[in-house]
């Protein structure tokens, strides 16, 4: 499946405060825009290869609760547990080919759905999103897929300055997920992404034991027992950890109930 990691969704009480926290650390974090139809707004931080973090929050929770957008439905559900990482997205240039791939895997695609938001300068950014029906609560949820209204080459040129930070060009290197049933979650993703079992690697770090797989040019770490200081159960089968490399020093912070692991 020809996809590339696109972005990590971080549900926050205040996207602007999350943006300010990253700006204080030397990142070029910016105001995103408003999703009028969904009752949400966001702030963003871009990295190499068009990867980015999306801090999303509610502008109108009642409108968000009525949205038929699967992502908004997920973050509304997640908001009952509080802030934290919610979902990951992979980018494609052919969303209909991804639909066919999902169907061939015996899964049910949902969508694609059109999306858009108004930038601060008044221009409108558009995209399409595709989801997978997921009946299992035992394993980490499926990602969603996104196709932007512009080619990657154009977007890279437009966002060249946004990917420049005080520390140079750090990048998102891995996403950590606390999986309730680790082996099942790994098999689920290997099946979807056509990843042979020989590429699964088992390691341990200060956060716990994990299985790592390469998916969409990013490392996904499925943790068996993440060592969160509190509220661990809230994050089962959700991302809880984001690794960012290319920093001047190693540092780990907790921001809006999500762990950011910065390393050189």
Distance, first to last CA:
31 Å
> Percent range for helical residues?
10-25%
Count of individual beta strands: 15
Please provide the ordered H/E string of secondary-structure elements: EHEEEHHEHEEEHEHEEEEEE
- How large is the count of helical segments? 6
Contiguous low-pLDDT stretches (5 residues minimum) are none
Main sheet, how many strands, which sense, barrel? Answer: 8 strands, mixed, barrel
Textual characterization of the structure:
Residues 5-191 form the Glyoxalase-like domain. Pfam families: Glyoxalase_3. This is VOC family protein. This protein has one domain (4-263): 2,3-Dihydroxybiphenyl 1,2-Dioxygenase, domain 1, CATH 3.10.180. The chain is built from six helices and 15 strands. The protein has helices at 15-24, 61-65, 70-79, 95-104, 152-158, 182-193, and strands spanning 4-11, 29-35, 40-46, 52-58, 84-91, 109-119, 124-132, 144-148, 171-178, 201-205, 208-215, 218-223, 238-245, 251-255, 258-263. The two termini are 31 Å apart.
């Amino acid at each position: 499946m020809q996809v590339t990691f696109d972005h990590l969704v971080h549900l926050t009480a205040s996207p602007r405060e999350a943006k300010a926290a990253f700006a204080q650390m030397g990142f070029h974090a910016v105001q995103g825009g408003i999703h009028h139809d969904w009752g949400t707004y966001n702030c963003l931080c871009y990295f190499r290869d068009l990867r980015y973090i999306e801090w999303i929050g509610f502008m109108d929770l009642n409108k968000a609760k009525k949205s038929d957008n699967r992502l908004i439905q997920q973050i509304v559900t997640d908001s009952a547990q509080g802030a934290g990482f919610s979902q990951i997205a992979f980018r494609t240039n052919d969303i209909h080919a991804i639909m066919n791939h999902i169907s061939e895997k015996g899964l049910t695609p949902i969508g694609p759905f059109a999306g858009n938001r108004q930038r601060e300068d008044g221009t409108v950014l558009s995209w399409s999103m595709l989801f997978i029906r997921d009946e299992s609560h035992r394993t980490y949820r499926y990602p969603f897929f996104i196709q932007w209204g512009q080619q990657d080459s154009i977007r890279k040129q437009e966002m060249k300055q946004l990917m420049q930070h005080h520390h140079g060009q750090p990048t998102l290197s891995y996403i950590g997920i606390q999986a309730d049933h680790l082996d099942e979650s790994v098999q689920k993703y290997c099946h979807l992404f056509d990843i042979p079992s020989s590429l699964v690697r088992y390691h341990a770090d200060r956060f716990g034991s994990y299985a790592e797989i390469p998916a969409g040019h990013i490392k996904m770490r499925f943790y068996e027992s993440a060592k969160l200081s509190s509220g661990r159960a809230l994050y089962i089968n959700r991302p809880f950890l984001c690794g960012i490399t290319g920093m001047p020093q190693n540092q780990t912070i907790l921001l809006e109930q999500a762990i950011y692991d910065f390393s050189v």
